[in-house]
Structures are given as structure tokens and as C-alpha cells.
Amino acid sequence: MLKGSHRRQQANEVGLLGEVIIEEFFDEQGIQYHDERTRTTHDYTMQNGVTVDVKTKERTARPQAHYENSVPLYNHAHQRPDFYYFVSLMRHSRQSTTDLKRFFEAHILGAVSRRRLEQVGQHWKAGATDPRNGTTFWTDCLNVSMEQLLENTEMTRLFTEVT
Fold first, then answer.
1. Are strands 83-91 and 51-59 parallel, antiparallel or unpaired?
2. What whole-number distance in Å separates Cα of residue 84 and Cα of residue 120?
3. Whole-model pTM?
4. Average pLDDT estimate for 128-137
């Protein structure tokens, strides 16, 4: 469990589900990767040396282009992957927030490079509220919209190209 996570064990479970989904996607696309989740700097190293960290979010509405993806800053100085890959897990709003069976669908949204995130990401301070959607942030974070992400086809090409 990472320091600073407000959801503790529940965050680990959601994050692990996102990682399993990404691994299945990589396998289906024929992308070779090394599982490096024992490290704290990133989750995977791709066959060409590119590093990836997976960020997973629960949602009760299907993702849309203007929705935001967040990278918490409590470990940003330490966690330095080349790319952040985003996954959304869909759940029914009326279901328990602790039962893993609440998830009925997953969306692999795309990725953003750390460099691009730092250039265009909107910085939110803990306690601030986004007036566009009413989200109050529990920690400092950088946000990018889904329309700012590189699509899965582009990421597959990037991961499989030889450097």
C-alpha cells in the first residue's frame, strides 16, 4: 500500500484489477512486458524499455472525452514512469463500495507520457473543488482529460516498436 493513499486496502484492490486488465490487453495485443510491480517507481517495463504505471479509477458513468484522469502527487517525485496508462472500472452506484463484484465493465482509456502530463496536466490542490463537475480532491493531483490521452492503437505501436 502506498503512503498517502486515502482508500488504503480498497485502493490496492482497485489498482490490482486495473493491472490485471492491462496485462490481458497487453497479452491480446502481443505486447511483451516485464512485470515490475515489486518496484515502486513503475508497474511494467515494455519490451523496448518504456516504463508504464497503471492508474485505475472507479466510475458510475461510462467515460466520456471530457472526463478527467488523475495522477496523485503524493508519490510523483518518486514514481517516474515514461507513461501513465488509465483504466476505468464501472460499477453500479447502488452497490456496496467494498464488494469487488460491484464492477461489471472495464475501459482501457489510453495513456499520457509523464512529460506531457507535467506540461498540460491541471494541478489541483487537496480540498479544491472542480467547478465543472463538483469533484473535491482528497490530495494534490495532476489531471488530464480523456481527449488528451494517446489512444490504445498508438500505445500498442509505441510499445512494440524497436528502439
1. parallel
2. 14
3. 0.89
4. 90
